[in-house]
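Risk register update: the risk of archive-format incompatibility is retired. Evidence:
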Amino acid sequence: MEHQTLEMPTDEGAWQEWVTGRARDGLRDAGAGAEALRAATDGDTAILQLWNDVQLALSDVLALTSVMTQVHPDPAVVDAAESLEIEARELATDLHLDAAVFDRLRSLDAAELDAAASRVLQLTLGDFRRAGVDGDPEERDRLRALRRRESELTLAFERNIRNGRRVSQVAATALIGLPEDYRADHQPDEHGLVEISTDYPDLHPFLTHSRDAVARQAVVHSFLNLGWPDNDAVLAVLLEVREEIARLLGYDDWPSYDAEVKMIAKGPEIPAFIDSLAEEAREVGRREIEVLLETARAEGEDTVDVANWRHLMELVKRERFGVDGQEVRRYLHFDKVLRGLLDVTSRLFGLRYEPADVPAWHPDVSSYDVLLEESGKRLGRIHLDLHPRERKFNHAAQFGLVTGVLDRQLPEGVLVCNLARGLVTHDEVVTLFHEFGHLVHEVIGGHHPWVRFSGVATEWDFVEAPSQLLEEWAWDADVLRTFATDEDGEPIPRDLVARMRAADEFGKGFLTCTQMAYAAISYWLHQERPEDLTARVRELTERYSLIGQVPDTHFQTGFGHLNDYGSGYYTYAWSLVIAKDLFSAFDPDFLFAAEVAHRYRDTVLAPGGSKDAADLVHDFLGRPYDSRAFMAWLRATPEAEQ
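Archived output:
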């Protein structure tokens, strides 16, 4: 059966009407489905399908509005999408607090359902109870108000980051050491000043290659004040709102409420995990910092901090590992990298990408239909929005656009990055592979009859593992040489890739500690809700991170993951432990082995959320996951440092 794909407007002026109309239709359908549920007869097996229809309508509205708020260039469309997203979230809250709908669902006998439907029912009833449906009317009214306020605050937090782009003016001499194409794109004004924005293609190369320590400090200062001061007040209220929600629902705190449906299960396990991983990484990290400090002193600096660690790492990679980032970069042109990524994932997962000449929200967007090579079956469509522009989401992420449901509609996903149009860094290549891992998961896993299982629908502390796994292909010489070629067509040398990998191993200790600092900030701000957020962030950073801070900055106001990950930023490290274990099943000498790659596709990606993540991993590995591969990686000494 061929399913119709999303038809987006061809006229730029029609977007607001189209977004509003599609969202209104979805909200209407969800409301009608809810009415049908309330009128259903107890025990009728059609009840669960009615609920699925409601969830599909709502899911599509929330997917559309979420994408549009992050990427659409027209502020009027963004404003309309934000309002509709709040309305959709409010309807979702109302439904989960609707005692009549809950009664219809719990009238079903799970024993009369098949295994998949029974799992949907069990999870759905749990969602209702976690929403507070068992509370008295006053409690439910308060929860409705709090959930609406939470939606408003999270959208405001995102908006302030998205629109908070900052620019630093630095002397043209600060570009000494930067690549030629970068300097060409940053011409000085009549005063000899150059503008460096907080966009990643501006920011990261400057911090890596500029030899001007004062200028680097100024640029970092701008970046670490994204969203300041507005988001400090927004975040303070958001933390209080989340805490009140958790307390009303009978939980000790927000992290305990949030962790209940994750692999970690219990809130207090989060700081225990953070501390254990930080302890494992600290000794390795301190040795690395000593090397960086030695390099800093040779540069006339006396500390390793947020403003100079990238630059110092570049010097260490060059001097100790023989890796020059600019030399690597000349093999990595964006166009060839993108084609290579599609070729690699096509070969790995048995996919075919066919360009789709369809309209989108911006000319930068390229779209592809995704087909299963072995059968020609169309799996879905992907949209790639990969270059920076004003008011666009300023990090890298994957978003669902259409929820895939078996025999009803195909999944569509959006990849959002901020990459240069010419030469890119290898770090950016790794990021692109990582985010594409989410996109592949969305499309391959988007073929279930139940919305609850569709796409990236596993526990939140597992969702990063498939993406972290795909990063490994961006480090393999055989893989890179298929697309990493210089302007003469010469592939990147194998020995250079080996040195790159060794150089990348340097820094894993102190960077793991940095990740634990972020995880601790995520957890403890929610747990404690301190009056002075900046002061507490500084304390936690000093406790966990091994690199110094930049004075008068407010990291938390631009830390977008406080919004979507809440108290659970630990999940990146948790997922990485699993990703390293998953990778142990692959042959590092031949990463394209079809048997293991297709087995991974079919046992981990395709099931979506139809099984617990631990069971997915067990199905693939033939055993429970463990941390042995991760610990071996963390403790191993880079070859050039032995």
